[in-house]
Specification:
By secondary structure, the chain is of the alpha/beta class. It contains eight helices and ten strands.
Length: 250
């Protein structure tokens, strides 16, 4: 089951500093919204507010028109973080990590079978279920993080800069995996990046964030080929080759 994630006039403040300023944004059900902005623009703060890690100062975050539950397991909105090593418990095997995220009440044999299925889904050998994060490469750890996120059968997945800590040679494989998972599972995804060249590969729609505000949004092909805001044009000018089209090769 996929859902629409909506931000309505969401504001997040840290003391006197406003990180997110009255943001209204919608992640359509079964689609990918790319959220782009430079470091410090507020995009990661918005993501953390959606999964309950940061309390909004104002506004509402809704899932299919209802407030996102503040408690309960599994969470209907799951997040994949930038650094796959720090987000995985080094004392747990990857099988234990994935199984921990599953809904409660699943028998041990079914958990083992589901772990194997999820690892295959992210193109990891199920025989690696007994390995620890330190025994895996960065790209493999990020695959585990993706498997853990979908293990809870979320209605929305937030991917926060998930390729920026990886070698360039690995980034394309992870982006391909995100596209594959989105198609196979029909996921609603908020894909966050500072890089338009990355976002254009996975996103149906694009929103541009600057100093805590959304300054432009629309279909990916429209924003990437005919931007209306000067900041979006500056981001495009920073991309090698400049001529971007939606869902072309990275």
């Amino acid at each position: 089951m996929t859902s629409e994630l909506s931000f309505e006039e969401v504001t997040v403040r840290y003391g006197r500093s406003t990180a997110v300023d009255a943001v209204t944004l919608r992640v359509p059900a079964g689609r990918v919204l790319g959220l782009v902005g430079e470091s410090g623009s507020g995009k990661s703060t918005l993501a953390r507010a959606a999964v309950g890690l940061v309390p909004p100062t104002g506004g509402r975050i809704l899932l299919d028109g209802r407030p996102v539950p503040a408690r309960g397991r599994p969470r209907p909105v799951q997040m994949v973080f930038q650094d796959p090593y720090s987000s995985l418990d080094p004392r747990m095997t990857i099988g234990e990590t994935v199984a921990e995220a599953m809904p409660p009440g699943v028998s041990r044999p079914r958990r083992r079978a589901e772990v194997a299925r999820l690892l295959e889904l992210v193109h990891l050998d199920p025989a690696r279920a007994g390995a620890y994060p330190g025994q895996l490469s960065g790209g493999q750890r990020q695959r585990v993080a993706l498997a853990r996120a979908i293990a809870g059968r979320p209605r929305v997945v937030i991917a926060d800069e998930i390729t920026s800590a990886l070698d360039v040679s690995i980034q394309g494989a992870i982006l391909n995996l995100v596209r594959e998972l989105q198609r196979e599972l029909g996921l609603s995804i908020l894909f966050i990046s500072h890089n338009l060249a990355v976002v254009r590969y996975v996103a149906d729609q694009v929103a541009i964030m600057l100093r805590g505000r959304i300054v432009e949004r629309g279909p990916a092909d429209q924003v990437l080929t005919a931007p209306s805001h000067e900041y979006t044009r500056a981001l495009l000018d920073a991309v090698p080759g400049h001529r971007l089209t939606a869902r072309s090769n990275p």
